[in-house]
């Protein structure tokens, strides 16, 4: 408002009407004349005895507060409270025992709430610092989880097809000791050892291939070949070669991670500029000193690229390999046996553990990369 | 240190870039080498610095190495060649790291380089935080840290804007006033040659041959004075006449190829 007053050039429609808010209000208004759900087969409207009107009033107040806030960002926080309140409504209705699958009024109302969230996120994404880099992705993830929960419970999707997140969380808590044992076997034993061996071997062979040109010429085509090898083909063979325990899983991981690391390291070693190499030569630096002081630091962004790709490959490799034989523990073993027993909650909990582990490994590597290659042009603050 | 080049020829496969170069660089002399693009100026410098092996001919370095000199023949590069992950002082220290020096001497060499180039307050900055002129000052400070006996400068000011170039030329003049370091200065800029050099060597287009060696009679310190301008203008005219013909023909040959 004050901006329009002080800036005579900004007299467009933007300041005349808030079209974004109009887009939010339209579905919300239509929603008011449609039922929220049904109770024992009879439709229940907004004034059908639930506390729905209170939620509606709360959301409207939040939007009004957001519009009249002196700063756009404060307004966004007020609107965010309105969004949260709107998405709490279906939980209240479920508690009242309503069947939501025919409640088009509720679903349209939630569409409007999602549009409002879109507006809020648009504002918050423009705020520099922790809000943009932590709060916005956090809200995004939370929104997905809440949407999943509400849709699955509202439309009564059978848990065998897709359980709501709350049920997966409950399964996680209830089976924590088993899941922890699986995690220890798969991640802390197989993945870490295989990952270190595969990446280490790829790195060392790359340094050798960099000195011995025919090795590079011979190995690079093999890299393409190896990346096309199906895990489900190589895994049973490795189990036959190396037995049921972690050794066979590590072997699968080595096969999967060796070439990505080799190729990235080789590319990184070739990343030094001519003039930097001339500098080292003109100060009489030999191969070893040039490698340590110039070429490896220059290769760091490439090394991290290989390490990050491999962190997820290693986890997938270990889990798939466990399908083909393992001691009676491990994430892949858990998935294959519990699927057979239709125990899908534990399967989903294991998937959640795997996903969190994968992104945790990746995130840790990304942080390490940021700390060690802050000098690199690709690491400008975003 | 003196540099003696005789009958030097260099080929890349079938391409002759330098042909029969004879050149002597006296102790403490600054020789500018100018010529059109692609005439082999940088190759000549690489050969003098020992990072390119010539196809034929001989190159010799004679004379005393001063006390404390760690790298007698030292380059200063056009694109500075700084390591982006090292701070200013670590970039300078890079060239000292493999020498057996006491910690105090190491620090003294880095500090004096920083001080002389006016970099003391930027010692912990990364190269990407510095202007082009400041980066080249780091390059110069790094070269000075080894107390060189001969400097090989490969178009050291070409990547900089006009004002920065003037400032750095003053830095070079100050450097050569205090230390009589022999220098081979490759450039395509006549102003730099006329400000800094004792003699100017004009190379022909490829294959590079010496067209002429011109001596600038006015000492470096007096070249800004009005009385020197007539002579400088005459030298400039002669150099430009030589360069212009070569540059035009080189241009046409590039267009044809």
UniProtKB/TrEMBL annotation, chain A:
Gene Ontology annotations for the cellular component aspect, listed alphabetically = plasma membrane
One annotated GO biological process: transmembrane transport
Broad class of where this protein is predominantly found:
membrane
Instruction: Tell me how this protein sits in the membrane.
Output: Multi-pass membrane protein
TM stretches of this protein? 19-38, 44-64, 76-94, 106-127, 134-155, 192-210, 222-244, 250-271, 313-334, 346-368
One family from Pfam that matches here is BPD_transp_1
In terms of superkingdom, the source organism counts as Bacteria
Q: Which residues form the ABC transmembrane type-1 domain?
A: 201-371
Q: Return the InterPro entries for the record.
A: MetI-like, MetI-like_sf
Annotated Gene3D superfamilies: MetI-like (1.10.3720.10)
Keyword terms of this UniProt record: Cell membrane, Membrane, Transmembrane, Transmembrane helix, Transport
Subcellular location, record wording: Cell membrane
Name of the protein in question: NitT/TauT family transport system permease protein
Q: What is the lineage of its organism?
A: Bacteria, Pseudomonadati, Pseudomonadota, Alphaproteobacteria, Rhodospirillales
Automatic annotation (TrEMBL), chain B:
* Residue stretches making up the ABC transporter domain: 3-232
Please give the superkingdom of this protein's source.
Bacteria
The UniProt similarity line reads: Belongs to the ABC transporter superfamily.
Q: PANTHER family recorded for this chain?
A: ABC TRANSPORTER ATP-BINDING PROTEIN (PTHR42788:SF20), TAURINE IMPORT ATP-BINDING PROTEIN-RELATED (PTHR42788)
Which keywords, in A-to-Z order, does the entry hold?
ATP-binding, Nucleotide-binding, Transport
List the InterPro entries: AAA+_ATPase, ABC_transporter-like_ATP-bd, ABC_transporter-like_CS, ABC_transporter_ATP-bind, P-loop_NTPase
Whether Phosphoprotein counts among this entry's keywords is no
- Any idea what this protein is called? NitT/TauT family transport system ATP-binding protein
Q: Which Pfam families match?
A: ABC_tran
Q: Which residues cross the membrane?
A: none
Q: Which residues form a coiled coil?
A: none
Question: What GO MF terms are annotated?
Answer: ATP binding; ATP hydrolysis activity
